[in-house]
Design goal:
CATH superfamily: Glutaredoxin
Structural class: alpha+beta
Number of domains: 1
CATH architecture: 3-Layer(aba) Sandwich
Largest sheet: 4 strands, mixed
Strand content: 5-15%
CATH topology: Glutaredoxin
Strand order of the largest sheet: 2-1-3-4
Amino acid sequence: MALIVYQYPKCGTCRKALAWLDGRGVAYRKVDIVEAPPPRRVLEQALRAGVPLRKLFNTSGESYRHGNFKERLATMSEAEALAALTADGKLIKRPLAVDDDLALVGFDEAAWAKALPRGR
């Protein structure tokens, strides 16, 4: 699988991440996270790659706050949490970059540089 970047066009952090990828010549396909949230298999892949379930949530977002997820997450099963994430792309921390063997959540330039060599 080629690198897929789930992003929100109005998100400054997402735009910064895409510009960083472009500047390094990294090939990717961008997907609007609101129009087409990642399917469950992609989120499960992120978990297998070592991303903690809680880190997948956009804790500063309106959907998170209005959905009372700060309290609800403590009692939700993994399946329930994944169902919530796939139902509302704004619940997911962005950008979310995934391919066959990696998952990056949020934009941390140092972490992305380590995981994504130039011209990948």
